[in-house]
Amino acid sequence: METTSRSGTIGESGPRGVDEYLRASFPWYGLDEAFTGRRWLLRTGSAADGEIEHGSVGHGDEPSFVAEAGMRDHRFTVVTTVASRPVRRSADGTGVLDATSVSSAAWLAGSGLLSCTWPQHMERSMREDWLGQQTAVAWELADDLEGPGWSTLALPVDGEPVPFHYRESEYGWVLAGSTQNNVHLGAYGRGMSAYGLAFSVIKDIAGYTG
């Protein structure tokens, strides 16, 4: 798996265990201590060289990834941390991929929200077509963070206000920004307002359950 530009693949893979998170060379972020609900691991993603490049942690209800009644009632926030990597090799070692950026975080957050969204009026056979169309839209939005599809929202990161690119849809909200620790942050959620969130470095990733 690689976190790349439009010409490559972005996604998340790997086991839902803490070992993959502990291998990362960058700090993980989650909601700060003001959030007292359940915290859980999602998954990590690695680059072509095997280095952990990004991963996500969840807060609140774990969203369902299948069509079922009441899934829109789940309240959650997922935070994705993306390492800042200016030089990245392709899987075959012959080329160089685009650097990771705030757009990478926005794309991961947008695709993450789509992955736990199932239009209730849609048959399973039509979902892949719908998901492909929505993924293309998410790409376009992530590539144009200064465009009309985004607004600006300032939220605390390690106690300091940081500007984020923010957008809402009928499926939930997505935001993306950068930190002083040389990582990019993406987040998505539903049922929990983004306006009251604050982020901080996770002191003990083992405190997040699998």
As laid out across the biggest beta sheet, the strand order is 2-3-4-10-9-8-7
List unreliable stretches of 5+ residues: 1-15, 90-97
* Fraction of residues in helix: 10-25%
Number of domains in the coordinates? Answer: 1
Oligomeric state, counting identical vs distinct chains: single chain
Total E-strand runs: 11
Key words describing this protein structure:
two-stranded antiparallel sheet, alpha+beta, disordered N terminus, 7-stranded antiparallel beta sheet, 3 helices, 210 residues, globular, 32% strand
What does this structure look like?
- This protein is an alpha+beta fold and 210 residues long.
- It has one domain (18-207).
- It has three helices and eleven strands; from the N terminus they run αββββββααβββββ.
- It has helices spanning 18-22, 102-115, 124-142; strands spanning 29-31, 39-46, 52-60, 76-83, 88-89, 96-97, 151-157, 160-169, 172-178, 183-190, 199-201.
- The protein has a seven-stranded antiparallel β-sheet with strand order 2-3-4-10-9-8-7. A two-stranded antiparallel sheet has the order 1-11.
- β7 (151-157) and β8 form a beta hairpin.
- α2 (102-115) packs antiparallel against α3 (124-142).
- The longest helix has 19 residues, at 124-142.
- It is globular and about 40 Å long.
- 37% of the residues are buried.
- Mean pLDDT is 80; it is low at 1-15 and 90-97.
